[in-house]
Amino acid sequence: MQPPNFSESNHPLVKSLFHHSDGELLTLFQRHPEQGKYFTAIFCRYSPIVYSLISHACKSPVQADYLFALTWRHIYYELRGLDLRENQENGANEPALTLQNWLINMTALCVNSVELPPVESIHYSLQAASPPLWCYIQQALEVLPALARVVVLMAETFQWSESRIAGYLQAEGDEITPAEIKRVLKEGHHLLEKELPVDIREIYLDTLPTEFGQTSAVKA
């Protein structure tokens, strides 16, 4: 399996960061969590290595794409507290830990520990949502009101209609109509996009021909 090409590598915001060292990108990412371009730049730099390692461990391209996204999501959260200088500060007689080596270790950890579901139950599409966009969408979903989050997930992940979502929620004891579901869904898409970093919207959403709610980027 060949590593996919990610168009965000050619975006001016990302290209402007290519001269930074790994350590500088890591520091910028940790100091500016409200911006997504630094994580995206790290992703663009190391996605070929990570994908190559994962593709050798997966028989199915669908499972490889899904594990690739899961691995980058794990990396995204672990990077927040990563200190590459820790070994030296603790006096360990070991070579300095590099970001590349750390990423390889994280990838190996995910390959060995993640239990992948069957292909038919995987809803994630690498073409619909690059891992950095998926990471920031997942983060944005966490702060949505509960009803909006459920409705958006049902609509985007399972492609359920407003009537079916209303029927499901009514069966769970919620008195809600398809018209109200439509309103909540529209509001949920608006809130979801609003919660995304401005630069992530510029990198990923400004060039899309469809509305945000139709990108299928919520699928997982």
Please describe the structure with a list of short key phrases separated by commas or semicolons:
220 residues, single chain, mainly alpha, 0% strand
Describe the structure.
- It is a single chain.
- With 220 residues, the chain is mostly helical.
- The chain is 59% helix and 0% strand.
- The chain contains eleven helices and no strands.
- The model is unreliable at 208-216 (pLDDT under 50).
Blueprint (SSEs and pairs):
Layout: H1 12-15, H2 22-31, H3 37-55, H4 61-79, H5 86-89, H6 99-113, H7 131-141, H8 146-157, H9 162-171, H10 178-195, H11 198-205
Helix pairs in contact: 2-3, 3-4, 3-6, 4-6, 4-7, 8-10, 9-10
| DSSP strand tally | 0
N-end to C-end Cα span: 21 Å
Shape: globular
Order of helices and strands: HHHHHHHHHHH
- Most strands sheet: none
pLDDT below 50 for ≥5 consecutive residues: which ranges? 208-216
- What proportion of the residues form beta strands (DSSP E)? under 5%
The number of distinct helices, counting runs of at least 4 residues, comes to 11
Round the mean pLDDT to the nearest integer and report it. Answer: 89
Outline:
This protein is mainly alpha-helical. The protein is built from 11 helices and no strands. The longest helix has 19 residues, at 37-55.
